[in-house]
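assembly run, all chains below
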Amino acid sequence: MTARIIDGNALSAKIRELLATSAAGMKVSHGVTPCLAVILVGEDPASQVYVRNKVAACEKAGFRSIKQVYPPNVEPVTVLAKIAELNADPSVHGILVQLPLPKHFDAEAVLEAIAPEKDVDGFHAENVGALMQGNPRFIPCTPYGVMKMLEAEKVPLKGAEAVIVGRSNIVGKPMAMLLLAQSCTVTVCHSQSKDLAFHTRRADILVAAVGRAKMITGDMIKPGATVIDVGINRQDSGPNAGKLCGDVDFESAKEVAGLITPVPGGVGPMTITMLLANTLESAERTLK
Ligand code: GUN
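ok done. output:
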């Protein structure tokens, strides 16, 4: 059997169209345009691409965006002052600091400086706590996108065995909270887990978010499982050197899984789509 592929580009396009319509309506009814401010520190090539894509997505959906780029050696106080300025600007609805930050930054302090009601990444401690309590203000974009994909594909969640590989604050941990809230039985695996395949083979829903190219192979997957690949890795050798691949070995996995997301064209576009959704939601809250 060959797995059905979940098309993240198609689902994203559908949702972004709805978001653009809502943004246009808000402009007409209230004279307000949703606005996202993106801060990038340094010259990490992957971060530059992500930020460029986020700004382009805003433009295409009719959102306003502010892009602020700093050199890698910028003083943290400069960035904190910019965040304070954006916090105080009522025309800005979302603020995002692209991660990772250079080593001389206290990343946690930077994330805590963002006003929680503009924290469209959902990384502020207050918003992490709200998610954990089952009352989220902003759902972190990548796990939010994964939940939308599962919903669109009508993947049964209640009582399902969900296994997440990776325990990051950005994906693994919030993913666990969201699946738990939908009554999955959740297991979170990580680099120290003993016998990873034992866990992954039990998964009805397997989410790979470790950042290691093709580490989940077909023999680690339960037949018919839903496999969500959050990894974005650049292959550094072999015939596909330079090309993107996920944490899942797509070729072997698609022969076993029931549903699978590709890389690229799977979770990636959904992350930016949900960032727009959170920004719109933030703007809507200011109208109430
Ligand atoms: N770096 C990798 N993923 C993300 C994300 O979702 N948000 C931010 N701010 N930085 C990231």
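The longest strand covers residues 35-41.

Residues 96-99, 121, 141-142, 170, 271 surround guanine (CB under 6 Å).

not gonna interpret more than that til we talk
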